[in-house]
Specification:
By secondary structure, this protein is an alpha/beta fold. It has one domain: Aldolase class I (TIM Barrel), CATH 3.20.20.70. The model has no long low-confidence stretch (mean pLDDT about 90). The structure holds flavin mononucleotide.
């Protein structure tokens, strides 16, 4: 019988399927269900820098209406921040009591700041690891790529100084040199890289002339982009790779493992098909491993990565003339 155990961030996972950070990982009842359905680990809903600050300003604004005391503002800000954080700390503590699979906390952050001290509290609450969802869209033409990229290194350095638990970065692909930045992050000591974060996509309602959002959930086809980069990077990094975006089936998981990922994260697949997609994926992986006589993940992990295949150019090819030639 196939053994799906894998190691990610130094943690022992019973299988490589991690439920990624989302609204479904925000309640203990769901976490229990996720464990019951067989997931290898879970990433909690992110606590957002902005979320905390938004909450603070809303509370302050509400208080401002009738009786405004400037001294009260500081008190309310501090109280609200602590309250929001306390909710998150409680979620970690309750999760650790309720389930035995690894619990990875998540912070969504954009720069070094006050929030880094939360990382210690997250560790003390019992989180097994911390995923940093770092992203600033590099839109300012006055700023150089290194000004944007240094942010990642500064945050990592600060957080690694504060905590002893493993730290992963969930990253974008908006880098002037993606490969070099990933390698440098790995040298800088990040324990895992989660490729890639998927962002809110802006859209325009042409009748109402308003901004809307589109494509909240991924499609299966989106995992090709991740597959390319997992395969290209997996033998060049000291850190583990976790593939995410567009992973909707057991086959999708197998491909990322073959490319060299240690684990995968799934979110949209669960929103679309429910928690039962987890055991379905596990069964698909087991069936495939049995059919290939693979006993463990290590038997095939990275077997189809850039450095291992005969025609690595397949991962480098980006011009489509050859593919589309003859398609009229
Ligand atoms: C409803 C929803 C909420 C999400 N919330 C978070 C979050 O709080 N933090 C985070 O890092 N990613 C968040 N994500 C992104 C997912 O973790 C994941 O990276 C993305 O959906 C791509 O994976 P998928 O193709 O399996 O959906 C969210 C995604 C969705 C659909």
């Amino acid at each position: 019988m196939a053994n799906l155990r894998t190691k990610y961030l130094g943690l022992n996972l019973k299988n490589p399927i991690i439920v990624g950070s989302c609204g479904l990982t925000n309640s203990v009842a769901n976490l229990i269900e996720i464990e019951k359905k067989g997931a290898g680990a879970v990433v909690l809903k992110s606590i957002f820098e902005e979320q905390i600050m938004h909450e603070v300003s809303r509370t302050v604004a509400a208080q401002n209406d009738a009786f405004y005391y400037p001294e009260a503002e500081d008190y309310i800000s501090e109280y609200t921040k602590q309250h929001k954080l306390q909710e998150y700390i409680d979620l970690i503590k309750e999760a650790k009591k309720a389930i035995s699979i690894p619990v990875i906390a998540s912070i969504n952050c954009t720069s070094v700041g006050e929030w880094t001290k939360f990382a210690k509290e997250i560790e003390q609450a019992g989180a097994d690891a911390l995923e940093l969802n770092i992203f600033v869209l590099p839109t300012d033409p006055e700023k150089t790529s290194s000004e944007y990229e240094n942010n990642y290194f500064n945050i990592l350095e600060d957080v690694k100084e504060i905590v002893n638990i493993p730290v992963a970065i969930k990253t974008s692909l908006y880098f002037s040199s993606l490969a070099k930045t990933m390698v440098k992050l790995s040298w800088a000591g990040v324990d895992g890289l989660v490729l890639f974060n998927r962002y809110y996509s802006p859209d325009i309602d042409i009748d109402k002339m308003t901004m809307t959002s589109t494509n909240v959930f991924s499609k299966h086809e989106e995992n090709a982009l991740v597959l390319r980069w997992v395969a290209l990077l997996s033998n060049k990094l000291k850190s583990d790779l976790c593939a995410t975006t567009g992973i909707h089936s057991g086959d999708d998981v197998i491909k990322q493992l073959l490319a060299g990922a240690s684990s995968v994260q799934i979110v949209s697949a669960i929103y679309k098909k429910g928690f039962d997609i987890i055991p379905e994926m596990i069964q698909e992986i087991e069936r495939w491993m049995d059919s290939k006589n693979y006993e463990s993940i290590d038997d095939f992990k990275g077997k189809m990565s850039f450095d291992k295949i005969e025609n690595p150019d397949a991962y480098m090819r980006i011009q489509f003339m050859k593919y589309f030639a003859g398609i009229e």
